[in-house]
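Z., the sequence and structure:
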Amino acid sequence: MVVSVSVVVLLLVLTVVFLRSGGLKVSHAVVCALLGFFLAGTSMAPTIQDGVASTAEIVSSLRP
């Protein structure tokens, strides 16, 4: 678990740096995908899933 958390933090930092630099290359997209896969394996995954589901529910209830 400790290795997984440190990898998630490293990938999160790299993702933020890549997004702030303005250009997202293929290698950057791979890092972002790896971040998603590692986040899915952490204990934060249910919280993230609930947050995304709640946001999607709110957005789908909005009428233009």
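DSSP finds three helices and no strands in the chain. The chain has one domain: 2-61.

Let me know what you think.
H.
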